[in-house]
Amino acid sequence: MEKGSGRWSVRGFREGIFDKERVPKHFQRWSPVEALGGLEDVDLEGLWESGKRLILLDVDNTLLPWRSEDVPQHTVDWLARARGLGFDLCILSNTRNPERLGRLSEKLGVEFIRDKFKPNPKMYYLALGKFGVKDEEAVMIGDQLLTDIWGANRAGIDALWVKPMGGKEFVGTKYFSRNIERVIGKILHNYFQADGVDAAVKPGFFRHETVRQLVKFGLVGGVATAVDFGIHYFLMFKAGGSDGALKAEVGKWVISTFRLDWPMDYGHLQDAAYAPLKVPAVLVAIMISYLLNRLYTFRTTHEKVTMKQVFQFYAVALVGMVIAVSVGAVGQRLADASPMMEWAAGSLLGMVAGFFWNFTGQKLWTFRKK
Hints:
- This protein has about 375 residues and is of the alpha/beta class.
- The chain has two domains: about 15-200, Rossmann fold (3-Layer(aba) Sandwich), CATH 3.40.50; about 210-365, no CATH class.
- The protein has helices at about 45-50, 75-85, 100-110, 120-130, 145-155, 170-190, 210-240, 245-255, 265-295, 305-335, 340-365; strands at about 15, 35, 55, 90, 110-115, 140, 160, 240, 245.
- Helix 7 (about 210-240) runs antiparallel to helix 11, helix 9 (about 265-295) packs antiparallel against helix 10 and helix 10 packs antiparallel against helix 11.
């Protein structure tokens, strides 16, 4: 935990006020009004003076740690102070344990609403109706951009993003939502409010680190893809075996080994040979991709090459290979065109699917900043 904060250290989380009007349109849906260290940092007096009358609250990692029923004293004190100022309070929760939510509601003395899960705006609308306030008179406080903040923005309600209270949380949140949130957060952090000349020097969209890395990753991917396609094309259409094309040999082997009920014609031999002949092409492309991404995209040449990093890169890339090969093989199988066009269509679909997997995995795991 962060020294003196009582909150879990979240890599990439920064506190500040956002200039929402400058946030790119497609990211405004996830933009809070402000990012704060926790409930204790919320300016309750300022909210009241700005006309807010209803505070909507997330539960887990906002009011108390995930799955816990032990309410921290600072949460109890904060709720008491909010009530003392005249605020109405209401919990909006995506919990799948309504019994626990009921017990917490009674312990905290705060009503709750549970309906369609956030970011669906229905719970927000129900809360506005229940307490008889307008959307501009309410504020949402939560720790997740993809649920609490997005749902509030969809309902036209201002939102405050607080740092998660603890490190334990639902596995889907920890390994999926938080990684997406980290990428979005890095972009949003470029739109903190600034005074004087600082406001004029905020970077544009293509100067964000994540966007630049995505473009570079795409360029490296283009080189690796050219190598991949070139080797695969050679093996599929140029390399010869003992009785003709290599793909015919491999296709016959696959059909006979796995006892596929396919005729031994040209098209089915190509379908059967696609995946096995893709593997060596992808392995060579992965090696080139690792070297170029280390040198150019993520610029980690100041760090020693370790077996752990190489393993991580290959692990992500091999999963990406499985995704690319699987999607590509299915795409080729479903395509109805000439053998060359079927191969091209399958390869393109597999490349797109593999690209997005690989960028996310390499950035957030293999080459993540220490």
